Amino acid sequence: MSYLIVGLGIFTVLHLYSMLLPVSRDKLKARMGEGAYKGVYSVAALVGLGVMIMGYRQLSAGPEAGNFLYEPPGGMRHVTMLLVLLAFISIGAFHGRGYLKRWLRNPFSIGIALWSFGHLLSNGRVHAVLMFGTFLALALLDIIVSTARGKWPLHEPQPRSDVNAVIVGMVLYVVFLFGFHPYVLNLPVVR
Fold it and tell me: Greatest CA separation found in the chain?
């Protein structure tokens, strides 16, 4: 469990710092330079994510895999798959300038919230609840903080961006379903 907790800790502290201490973050960014700040932040977040994935994979294959916090209701696998598809489409809308981004306002955080909530519906293992619960809490906090600060996209929507978001979302979905889950996590979804 220690790798998962260390990875979650690194990832969470970075995101909470960026979210909750914007003045300090902006001063550090100005001192380091935007490119260097983004580089260091990205590398640190990827290290946290990598350690987290390593810990999750170990726990999923080890004796802790049988430790359940709750038994998920039957039939949730299909609900999870739908929520994850919607999550990836939402994440795909993040970089565009479409109607989806304007309507959702926080498409990346909404996507992460849908993804994590979907996984919580179909997986009651202790380590899964810890990881997906952390992601859900961070995503919801980001939505609340961004909304409170009045931060939302103000652009002229381009329908092409929405088409791209759907295509990107579907490609990500297929990659995660048939690549990441079975080969990186060793947890095939499609049987």
Answer: 53
**pLDDT at position 64 over 90:** no
Give dist(CA 54, CA 57) in Å, integer. 5
pLDDT tens, 47-63?
Answer: 999 999 999 989 988 88
The two structure tokens encoding residue 143: 């939505």
Query: What does the domain layout of the chain look like in residue ranges?
Result: 1-65, 67-191
Question: Residue 144's Cα: distance from chain center in Å?
Answer: 16
The contacts of residue 102 (CB under 8 Å, 6+ apart) are: 152, 153, 155, 157
Phi, then psi, of 108 in degrees rounded to 5: -65, -50
Residues 6+ apart with CB under 8 A from 43: none
